[in-house]
Design brief:
Layout lengths: L13 H6 L10 E8 L5 E4 L2 E7 L1 H13 L4 E7 L18 H12 L4 E6 L12 E3 L2 E3 H18 L3 E4 L6 H11 L6 E8 L6 H7 L24 H13 L3 E5 L5 H10 L4 E5 L1 H12 L5 H15 L3 E4 L2 H8 L1
Helix pairs in contact: 2-3, 3-4, 4-5, 5-7
Length: 329
């Protein structure tokens, strides 16, 4: 007796596979990370991130227009701060005419409808490469949070739609939310890096911003005292629920592929959008393997992106965004 149900009927050809596909990728899924550098006429390829670049503000304009034309409507800004402007307290982060503040204005001037999110953390501004202020060899939480709240306000004043605290300090979401509310920025959103793990996948990103932790005496050599232990699962739920209670509008899991179980766990528990950051190491691994001819770049890229969305991501921050959109269009 032949089976009544033959599941392969729904896989017979591309037309039927497309018709019943559960997870569909579109430009609306993506948040595009952009690296900004001081200078003019600069489009610097990042050595450890092939075909990804740092832009000076004048060339940022063209890049933003290109993204918008592709249907990519949201960007996440990061800045590479000159060494002479770095210190232990991230003073330059509060400069109203700093690189981040000017980058926000540049994007908004050239494309007013582009959604601008901004990185909020001290590591690009820190002479030690850490996300917080260091005292006696310890990353101090509360003093750091005060600076993060001021930084967020500075970004809002410059025109940011969302601030994205990536530091993992305790209580920073509430401090940022209260500061924004007190200053009248009730519509400025917060995308919190709620479950950010102490991962080895961040190396190329730190090359891009020259923001790796400094290995010197009395300075922690890594970020394990504030970023999460990658062995932990339920801690991610606690962190995420606390951030939502403190006022986060979107929560994020970072990195991506190795943490899809965490993405699904959080998606099942919360009622706010969930973002995933497919980080620099994930990008660079595929680029390197494809360059060697070991993997089909586009096929693996699409499989990875689809897996991230299938796991529950509402927003995907990815260095592949332009490649994906060009491919699917």
């Amino acid at each position: 007796m032949y089976p009544i149900k033959r599941n392969r009927r729904l896989r017979t050809n591309e037309a039927i596979r497309s018709l019943v596909r559960e997870t569909v990728i579109s430009p609306n899924d993506f948040l595009v990370p952009l690296f900004i550098v001081e200078g003019k006429g600069l489009k610097e390829e990042i050595a450890s991130m092939p075909n990804y670049f740092r832009f000076s503000l004048d060339l940022l304009e063209a890049e933003v227009k290109s993204l918008w034309k592709l249907g990519l409507k949201s960007v996440l800004l990061f800045v590479k701060v000159p060494d002479n402007l770095k210190d232990n307290k991230g003073t330059e982060a509060l400069n109203p005419n700093g690189l981040m503040q000017r980058a926000i204005k540049t994007v908004k001037n050239v494309c007013p409808d582009m959604l601008v999110m901004t990185d909020v953390a001290l590591d690009p501004y820190s002479s030690f490469g850490h996300d917080g202020i260091i005292e006696n060899g310890i990353i101090v939480n509360d003093d750091t949070v005060e600076v993060l709240a001021e930084m967020s306000l500075s970004h809002a004043l410059a025109g940011a739609n969302f601030v994205a605290p990536s530091d993992m300090m305790d209580g920073r979401i509430l401090a940022i939310r209260e500061t924004l509310e007190d200053e009248g920025f009730t519509d400025t959103g917060i995308m919190s890096y709620s479950a950010k793990y102490a991962s080895a996948f961040y190396g190329p990103f730190r090359d891009a911003l020259d923001s790796a932790p400094t290995a010197i005496k009395d300075v922690p050599k890594d970020k394990k005292t504030y970023q999460m232990d990658y062995a932990n699962r339920f801690e991610a739920l606690r962190e995420t629920e606390m951030d939502i209670d403190e006022g986060a509008d979107i929560v994020m899991v970072k990195p991506g592929l190795c943490y899809l179980d965490i993405v699904r766990e959080i998606k099942n528990e919360v009622d706010v959008p969930v973002a995933v950051y497919q980080v620099s190491g994930e990008y660079s691994m595929l680029k390197a393997a494809a360059e060697k001819g070991w993997l089909d770049h586009d096929a693996v890229m699409m499989e990875q992106i689809t897996a991230i969305k299938r796991a529950g991501a509402d927003v995907i921050a990815s260095y592949f965004a332009k490649d994906v959109v060009k491919l699917i269009s």
